[in-house]
Amino acid sequence: MGVMKRFEQRLEGLVNGTFAKVFKSEVQPVEIAGALQRECDNNATIWNRDRTVVPNDFIVELSAPDFERLSPYSGQLGDELAGMVRDYAQQQRYTFMGPIKVHLERAEDLDTGLYRVRSRTLASSTSAEAQQQPHQQPHHQAPQQPHAAPPGYGYPPRPVSAPPMPPGPPPGQPHAQPARPAPGGGFGGPDRTRRWVEINNNRHQITRSTLVLGRSTEADVRIDDPGVSRRHCEIRTGTPSTIQDLGSTNGIVVDGQHTTRATLRDGSRIVVGNTTIIFRQAEG
Fold this sequence. Notes:
Number of helices: 5
Low-confidence stretches: 14-24, 126-163, 174-189
Structural class: alpha+beta
Largest sheet: 6 strands, antiparallel
Shape: globular
Strand order of the largest sheet: 7-6-16-15-12-13
Order of helices and strands: HHEEEHHEEHEEEEEEEEEEE
Distance between the termini: 40 Å
Mean pLDDT: 75
Helix content: 10-25%
């Protein structure tokens, strides 16, 4: 059973209790859970071959109406979300520098139904690992700058003064040198691959590193289908290209398999709601 499905089932067990009002909010807990998963993926830092560190302190900013509805249950919801992050990290073999915490905050610049996620990596000052990291800031010192939401993700992105510096490797481990993209394209050489999706006999070129599909007008490709969520899924180009569910209500089916994340090949069939999407790619 997938991490997101287990999270949904745990919440369903509480629907008849204190969580009954939560599900009336414009922002659904499952949407926040999907955003936290993406936050881990987007801010993962590779220390060495066996260790990838992800943020462990998350702030979910909500509009005033959504915050008023969710804040009475913030403690329980935060615990459930933290548990989901822990399960997802175990599945992806991610590690943390300290305990996982999820906080809700009110943001006056957000409209109802919109949210924004910020994250940072905080080391526990009491952990043995933190004691082995003298350069790592303990809790009582100024924390690292929060990770900024990547372009095309979050509502709307909040500017930050500077991106965080990744933590150094454990003692005795050499510094890993990050791969540098070659001029004009991807890693190791120019990427001349053309990519596009076909929806209802219409072709939509993929010209950026990500393509968000959904029912919202803010999606890169809008799909007019009641079974499709506002921000349903995201295609990420690369070698290979992948697709990621964005916490949608009905999920995605890729080449006949219901999944939350999958690798795409030329001709892959993606089903969202009642709509079929064909992923295409060709050299040159």
